Amino acid sequence: MTSRRRFLKTASLASTAIAFSPSVFVRSASPVSRVDNAAGEDFWEDVAAQYDITPEITNLEGGYWGMMARPVLEAFKEHTERVNRESSYYARTQFGRDVSLILERVAATLGVGPDEMAFSRNATEALQALISQYNRLQAGETVMYADLDYPAMQQAMEELAGRKGAQVATLVLPEPATSMQQIVDAYEEALDARPRTRLLLLTHANNKTGLIHPVKEITALARSRGVDVIVDAAHSWGHVPIDLDGWGADYVGMNLHKWIGAPIGVGAMYIRASGLDGIDRAHGDPGPLDSIRSRLHTGTMNFATLLSVPEALDFQEWVGWERKYERVRYLRDLWVREARDIDGVDILTPDDDRLVGAITSFRLNGGTTGDANREVVRRLAEEHGIFAVARTGVDAGDCVRVTPALYNLPNDLNKLVMALRAMAS
Ligand SMILES: Cc1ncc(COP(=O)(O)O)c(C=O)c1O
Fold it and tell me: In total, how many domains does the chain have?
């Protein structure tokens, strides 16, 4: 079966499983504004019902990975069985063509060329390859990262600098950030202070406070100073609007198993064609140097995971990219609006649409230590039946992160507000 036929087959399977009723289509045909969102609750209940989530706890930790919706899970099981049944015969004779078509769809959806994208097993693999294989850094130059970047990528920047005899510069993002300009200014000041900077790690949606960084503006600043930018977009696609081409950065690492809801084990690397020569060949890769494929050598990947990407995209498209963004922002605003008025709760993430998506972090009763924040998480779970996560690495101190997802309904956020009221001193 060709990939195209398979895609059509699975798309119709997905529609059966979702039970697309005409009324759902009508309701979902135009974007629902955040303000109107509450009125469209019946649609969102249909969406939430596509997730078989445990009733044991109210999960507000959608930031770890994106649970598969049922049609995606069903497709994943089917692909797993088929690949296992057809084994190397399928893998050797058809998988290459199928995965190329899937990559083409991913690239087309993202508005970039298929020769600028490669699948990885997660964002980490793509970003670690980009950082560690970056070859334009000279001894005495500088690499730069911020306190809100992801720890493993910070460490990779440190190791790159160490290997090349380069310096490391770090910057601390304003907390709470009050405007987009303030963030851009922080980068501008840091870049001006370190004119020998050659490489900047820039996280689009960070994992600690959820702050969205103005990638296009910061990249423009960096590039005008001859600085290459590696964008960590692990949390971006399917969560907040993104524009790989418009960002202007040559290098991006991303995930499909977070906000795209594909099975665990799929991410992607983007290298703009003009930036390919800045990244060395992956260790041990014998492929052609003029192809992005030679920049990431994963070995054998999970065939079924990759084959399930179309169904994950179908599901996202059914919900609607813009509508999903508006929904998760709506759920986020539900609790944040109330929590801002609770004495003892400090919200670390701004409300400006350009600076926030679903993720927002808070501190309770001024607690900035790891212990204090783990205790908040423990009490949320044990006393209120809510799951959230403590985050460390923010310069001003630790915090608790809350991330609603499509399986959450407004009542989950009301429950959090009640818990915060009870816990705030
Ligand atoms: C900002 C950021 N970068 C990178 C990663 C790594 O993603 P993965 O573990 O899927 O590779 C994460 C994971 O949460 C993240 O939040």
Answer: 2
